[in-house]
Amino acid sequence: MPMELSSSSSSCFLFLFLLFIIPFLYFLKVAASSKSKRPRLAPGPAPLPIVGNLFELGDKPHRSLARLAKAHGPVMSLKLGRITTTVVSSPDAAKEALQKKGRALSGRWVPDADRVLGHDRVAVVWLPPSQQWNNLRAVMRTYSFAARVLDASQGLRRQKVRELISHVRGRTGRAVDVGGVVFDTVLNLISATAFSSDLVSLDYHSDHSASRRLSRGSWRRSANLADFFPLLVPIDPHGRRRKVTKCFVRLFGMIDEIADRRLKLIKEQQQQQEQEQEQEQEQKSHDFLDELLHLQLDRPTLRSLLAVSRVCF
Asked: Dihedral angle at the C-alpha atoms of 284, 289, 294, 296, nearest 10 degrees?
């Protein structure tokens, strides 16, 4: 009986040992394989397990990156969660990256929140270099950022600034949400340039304010863990994707409404122009009937002449 217990316990121990040692050996093999295939990266601080260098950024990342650049050089690598990031912090290195190697380094990492509704697949900001990107860039360069367009909208920009100043003066003695009214002013400037109409009201308490209809982008003020740990994307721990989706649905709905209204107006104008052209064509036509009407003949004579001309010709 004791021999049977000893044999059973030995088998159980061997099973538990194999249960733990096999996954451990597999993990070591995968780690060694990935390390051997890992591309050479720029120097940088040693990352911590799982979180990487996230804690080294602190609440003021620009100062933290400047401090790290002094220790590791103008080009350094950081591990932000599961995302490897290369930081360029000197003019010479930036020139090398943006001018000489701009094509190879032009691909952009897209935050998870900007992938909603397929926005990243059509936005010129996030598209990789391609024919679609070139076409959209040409459209924006020609119709949005051309010198003549910017010069033509100079008066509009001044008008929006005057409206902002007037709004602030009208609230003398009361608190002013500076961030809110500035955001609304910029949004109105963009919408007035693109749609020839204001999109929102500067009144913070209005139902049409950007703060209520577009959430004023407050969801962008903090980091999103899903951007650093892709496994968290389906969970959406901060609710960022849900908030951005609601914001984009409202914004796209407003744009669709304005575009549909403008298309309807364009069609009505085209129909009116076609009718006017037809009327002008009828007025310009000078035929045998016009000559007879100009002679002010009586109707029986008019009918007779037209009938004879029809038979003859």
From this structure: -150
- The pLDDT of residue 114: 86
The DSSP secondary-structure symbol of 173 reads: T
Q: What is the per-residue pLDDT for 156?
A: 85
- Mean pLDDT of all residues belonging to the chain: 78
Rounded-to-integer distance, Cα 18 and Cα 6, Å: 18
Q: What is the pLDDT of residues 265-277, one digit of tens each?
A: 889 988 888 888 8
Please give the model's pTM, rounded to 2 decimal places.
0.64
Nearest-angstrom CA–CA distance, 5 and 126: 66
Hey, is 210 helix, strand or coil?
helix
Cα separation, 59 vs 63, in Å, equals 9
Task: State phi, psi for 87 to the nearest 5 degrees.
Answer: -110, 125
In this structure, is the dihedral angle defined by the CA atoms of residues 77, 81, 83 and 87, taken in order, positive or negative?
negative
Distance set, CA 219 to CA 41, 205, 241, 246 (Å): 32, 20, 9, 12
- What's the 3-state SS for the chain? CHHHHHHHHHHHHHHHHHHHHHHHHHHHHHHHHHHHHCCCCCCCCCCECCCECHHHHCCCHHHHHHHHHHHHCCEEEEEECCEEEEEECCHHHHHHHHHHCCCCCCCCCCCHHHHHHHHHHCCCCCCCCCHHHHHHHHHHHHHCCCHHHHHHCHHHHHHHHHHHHHHHHCCCCCCCCHHHHHHHHHHHHHHHHHHCCCCCCCCCCCCCCHHHHCHHHHHHCCCCHHHHCHHHCCCCCCCHHHHHHHHHHHHHHHHHHHHHHHHHHHHHHHHHHHHHHHHHHHHHCCCHHHHHHHCCCCHHHHHHHHHHHHHHC
Do 248 and 241 contact (CB within 8 A), yes or no? no
Which DSSP letter does residue 69 get?
A: H
